[in-house]
Amino acid sequence: MSGTAPVSTLGGWRRDRFSRNGTAHDVYERGEGPGVVLMPELPGITPEVLGLARHLADGGFTVVVPSLFGTPGAAPSAARAAAVIGRACVSREFRALALNARRPLADWIRALARDLAARTPGPGVGVVGLCFTGGFALAAAVDESVLAAVAGHPSLPLPLGAARRADAGLSEEELRDVARRTREDGLCVLGARFTGDGLVPGDRFATLRARLGDAFECIELDSGPGNAAGFGRKAHSVLTREVREAQGHPALAARERTAEFLRRRLAPLPDPGSG
């Protein structure tokens, strides 16, 4: 695949510190409009993650990106990625191998979503997770402030064995609450993966289809041998590293579909007194 992914920098972003119940992380904010929490992928808030964040902010959202691991703004490298992955895999916050797990970081993300919802327009906020944080978007959707969740190539739990391959990345209690909210509150979930991505097995999305029904929208890009777009066999980051700003590019279309999904769910309700 020729070309490079869209990137950006931390220039123009406001930095703050968000703390709840003993957990604190720096957060970066930009834009105006309905709120979106965008969680980074490994190894952190890379230029490619910032490219997606800037695209959403320019598209009319208030975007908040928490720094959960790595060095914000730093370009990825093999050494940096290995160090971050090693720490993240043993972190209690992520519980990378745990089945049916309520992961501690999810409570902090829900609090961040509530804070953003309280100060931005619209009926609620969206949460986007990428790779290691993909399943946290689902876990965040337990909270009533979240009306749209995007699970971008969710890789937790690491898919070692059949049970982990099918695990949706949150506890059974949380998944039941998410399913209930799709029925009662109009919550919608969007998932994105490459068909050949071993880190994000098809079994995981099959679980979400079975449990969420029509409330689960799915983007699956062909990365099999000889695929028309030329994606490599290790293609993983649907919404960031694999995007090319070229007409008809499948990952670019996936990014646009994601932005439209958020826009459709989070657009402010019309003022009953207007008109």
Could you please describe the fold and organization of this structure?
By secondary structure, the chain is α/β, with parallel strands linked by helices. It has one domain: Alpha/Beta hydrolase fold, catalytic domain (Rossmann fold). The chain is 33% helix and 18% strand. Strands 1-2-4-3-5-6-7-8 form an eight-stranded mixed β-sheet, sandwiched between helices. Strand 5, helix 4 and strand 6 form a beta-alpha-beta unit. Helix 3 packs across helix 4. The longest helix is centred in the last third of the chain and has 17 residues. The model has no long low-confidence stretch (mean pLDDT 92).
Tell me the layout of helices and strands.
Blueprint: E1 14-20, E2 23-30, E3 35-38, H1 47-58, E4 62-66, H2 78-90, H3 105-118, E5 125-130, H4 134-140, E6 146-152, H5 162-166, H6 172-184, E7 188-194, H7 202-212, E8 216-221, H8 250-266
Parallel strand pairs: 3-4, 3-5, 5-6, 6-7, 7-8
Antiparallel strand pairs: 1-2, 2-4
